[in-house]
Amino acid sequence: MSRVDFAYGAAHRLRMACGTAARHVGAGRRLLVYCTDERRLRRFDALLWEFEPASFIPHALADDPLADRADVILVADAATLAGMPPGGWLLNLDLDCPPQAERFERILEIVSGHEADIQAARARWSRYQQAGHDVRGHRLPSSHPAAGNHRGA
């Protein structure tokens, strides 16, 4: 089973996700980002371009010819996710649990303080636990830079 880490208290979920992606790229780790909401995934894609003005987070949509060279792969649907190699780390930006979550070594969940986001996260937490995953929660410090105090947050 996978280890699932929930980070609670992000001032801005997608900006926090950008910071998470940047840390993983900096550590030399490839990261899949899953979200079936096309608008949210496009917004995350745009934020990756502007997140750190002095650096670049190499990313691509899974169906892009350059995806095999990107450190962050954006996955928009369950069929594409199923075709990705097993193992590795997945950042879930969807409101539901990713399909076949057990295929991933680690799943990262970021939760903002918005009530709808909190409720959706609680439902995912419960589903992960019922499936037998190792689920852990982490409260983000309110002064955490990627928690929303970043330029433009």
From TrEMBL:
Q: What class of enzyme is it?
A: transferase
SUPFAM superfamilies, per this entry? DNA polymerase III chi subunit (SSF102400)
Q: Does the keyword Nucleotidyltransferase apply?
A: yes
- What is this enzyme's EC? 2.7.7.7
Q: State the UniProt keywords alphabetically.
A: Nucleotidyltransferase, Transferase
A Gene Ontology molecular function term for this protein is: DNA binding
Region described as Disordered: spans on this chain: 134-153
Q: What is the lineage of its organism?
A: Bacteria, Pseudomonadati, Pseudomonadota, Betaproteobacteria, Burkholderiales
Protein name stated in the entry: DNA polymerase III subunit chi
Pfam families assigned to the protein according to its UniProt record, in alphabetical order: DNA_pol3_chi
